[in-house]
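Limitations
The structure tokens in this dataset are predictions for the assembled complex, not deposited experimental models. Users should treat interface geometry with appropriate caution, especially where small molecules or nucleic acid strands are included. An illustrative entry is reproduced here so readers can see what is and is not provided.
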Amino acid sequence: MVDVIKASGLVKTYGSVRALDGLDLAVAEGTVSAVLGPNGAGKTTAVRILTTLLDADDGTAEVAGFDVRRQPGEVRAHIGVSGQYAAVDEYLSGYENLHMVARLYGLSRNSSKARASELLEQFSLTDAADRPVKTYSGGMRRRLDLAGALVATPPVLFLDEPTTGLDPRSRTDMWEVITALVSAGTTLMLTTQYLEEADKLAHDIVVIDHGKAIARGTADELKAQVGGERIEVVVGSSADLETARQTLGAVAIGEITVDAHTRRLNAPVRGGASALIGALRDLDAAEVAVLDVGLRRPTLDDVFLMLTGHGAEEPSEQASSTQEEAGAR
Amino acid sequence: MTAIPKAVVDGAVVARRNVIKIKRVPDVLVFSTISPIMFILLFGYVFGSAIHPEGISYREYLMPGIFVQTVVFGATFTGAGMADDIQKGIIDRFRSLPMSRSAVLVGRTASDVLTNVVTIVVMSLTGLLVGWRIHTSAFEALGGYLVMLLFAYAISWVMAVIGLIVPTPEVVNNAAFIVIFPVTFVANTFVPTDNFPPVLKAFSNWNPVSSVTQAAREAFGNTSDKLPPPDTWPLNHPVLYSVLWSVGLVVVFLPLSVRLYKRAASR
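Predicted assembly:
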């Protein structure tokens, strides 16, 4: 498959902060790739460089076969962008916003009208079409902004944190919209700090931190890196810890970790539910009082914690300063 | 499509958006037309009670000056508009579209000319009410209006550069105020300059605001034989000097603003 988005060695510094520190990216045609990272990891900077909004200090990038630095006009003609902050005009109506964008993409007057109405329909904004955007909710603004990115049915789409700041309902709506889009064959690169979102929408995930890719692969591959399923047991008394450890040893396929303070045991297993049932039966036979038990599958949160040593939701130390402020209003 | 027609076509789309915005938020237009009316009444009757230029009523003398001051102030909206677009983030949409790199600026400056035209019409009607008259032909008067609008258009490009540099629309207004107030006051706009201290007089004589005002006075016939302008080259050739300044400002500030626009990031 052809890579529609290619970046190699992207570097961007803001003062002493290296927002991007040699980032490589590749997104194959017709696939969805998620760039996952905490605040300040460099996600927005990467999108801004790939969409010609920002020049990289070093490195090269190609989108749809065009060099972002040397052929920015060609790149712009082949992409749609929807940013973290809806780039819509508040005083214009939804229809007027889309009509304007269509005209600026070079569509004729009539095509622009038709396209604007069509997109409003597609994004369930027809009822609000003639209201100024000022009166829209956050979710409606995002949908309108996304509609703006789709005006020219671009083959390559960039969505920068498409659901950040949305309520759960709007987020689910947005996911549906995005899923429908990519099933139509659009190549999509999206950034997100939500692990669930990357898991749900993307084929490939690139985990970035401090402006560098620290892992890449499918969601399953990444999960495999932190290991498979685990049984987690909390026992009733500290005296039972050793018995429980020995009992679990029969089903465990690796080292069992014991946290004496919380009386919690953690055993890697294979076989899912049947391993759990077997372990419970054994624990019961050994007369161990079990307070809580569960089968845990690794989440991308675990992946992130393993790779970076800090959780995805808490900002890394570079985060707060320059880069996010550049995007903040 | 070649670069220039595309800038004009895309610019027209952006200008149309700005006009819609003026309709939705008429405060700006209302403010920019009410304040000159206030100036006409205030200056015309307060200063007019003390200042009596020879051979002409003060209000007739004053009108071209207020016209020029107003259109130059009107041009500051260009800067505030650019800063506002950048602050609101719509600039990211524009910059990611395959549109002309100068279209946002072309559209903005064009719609601000339109605002100035509306302002001039309202002011002219107010002027007629307080006794101002055009004593020449409609053709000459039109020429006077055009010189003023051209100069304001040129100032718009200067303001666009300011709007692209400073962080918020409020700062544009303050920055513009500090520059534009002295430039429009140290001139022949409101009072004859004969009694200015030498430094101010020299500044005034070479100030393009003076030459634009002089050009407008001559075009409308608001002059008096008993009140000749200072005998300097700019004021003896007011139209030529005004046009030279206007063209010069556009030649310098248009490319500069397009360059800044290309790098402008949303804030």
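Some entries come with short summary sentences. For this one: Residues 314-329 of chain A have pLDDT under 50 and may be disordered.
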